[in-house]
Amino acid sequence: MKKTFKRIAALVLAILTVTAVFAGCSNAKKTDVDYIIATDTTFKPFEYTDANGDFVGIDVDILAAIAEDQGFTYELKSLGWDASIAACQAGQANGMIAGASITDERKSTGWIFSDSYYTATQCVAVGKDSAIDSIADIKGATVAVKTGTQGASYAESIKDEYELKLTYFEDSPTMYQAVTGGQCVACFEDTPIMAASIKDGDLAMKILTDSENEGAGYGFAIFDAKNQELVDKFNAGLKNIKANGKYDEIIAKYLG
Hints:
By secondary structure, this protein is α/β, with parallel strands linked by helices. The protein contains 10 helices and 12 strands. A hairpin with a 5-residue loop joins strand 2 (48-49) and strand 3 (55-56).
């Protein structure tokens, strides 16, 4: 019941956010660019704000490279996860790039994905000084997850086996704070996100050895078949930037 209430509250907040951001615009096409594309706000190293206040990341650079390759223009709206989904579903954005894992469950609920542009696993992380060394040690613990993510799905899939108590959060920084502040023993997160947050953000956490699942590919997403042309352009551009080396340059820039 608590989980359902939180998801309803998150959806309402997302809708209000989208309404505010797109106030005065009846749909995404009434702009001077070809497409409006929504994204998350705090998902380092895929999309985040750097020290200069610029919006950067793997997703940001891949999208820019593909747009240049395919000759289209776009406006990137930094809305957050739930609000990005809501904007696409409401027709106020044409597509979404935000480290979205390609899953059959999402496809069954209306997500239309591009080819995978990155494969990520999910992991379990605890406080840096925690005595917990393995996933077996979190049995019976209260753990943090981010609503609607693959990390949450991973935790839900092993909840009964490990007798976990799940606490849901709307963004990664707040989820991390719940762990470092002692509210939760561990959190479930995409591995590259967790690793980057620990390395670059001086986050006092550690990833548990052998805690990763099999993972899934990230995809660009639309929610209306009329935007299929955008997915086709994304796929064609992705193939080209992989062939010419630009893709590898972007990955190396952020992940080494």
